Amino acid sequence: MTKYIALLRAINVSGTKLIKMDHLRKLFEAFGLSSVQTYIQTGNVIFETKAKNTPLFESKLEKQLEAALGYRVEVFVRSMDELANIVAQDHFEPQPQDTLHVVFLRGKPAKTQLDILKKYNSPADEFAVSSREVYNLRHDRDTSVFSNNFIEKIFGVATTRNMTTLKKILEKYR
Description:
174 residues; alpha+beta; Alpha-Beta Plaits; 2 domains
């Protein structure tokens, strides 16, 4: 069995798509997954499964969640080893006031998408891409262009997590 994390997009944000984590954990258990745990209210579900085809598995989880909840929830699945590699990436030298985000994409971005993103590097934001993730180092929240909506205009559906959250997930569940 391999340990994975499912990162759910846009749940429990601004009073929409509300899901209690205990209910979410029970749903994942009902889907036949093992050792299911959740971390904070933003839709981080850690579990074990024998499934290996991540895109197919993401699609299956999305269909199961939609059937159970009555609305679509996008799901991004990474193994805990992949998550450790994502966290270990060293694209920037953050200062204490900076915020580092990781955006999870469906697939590897096209060169045209990367070219568009490069235009947005500025004193407020630095961007880097590795595999299926976009990294944002936000220096200035007030002038930053970074948001999940900004990323989705370039790359399509995505979900974002703060690097601090990802590190805590690894410390607690790996």
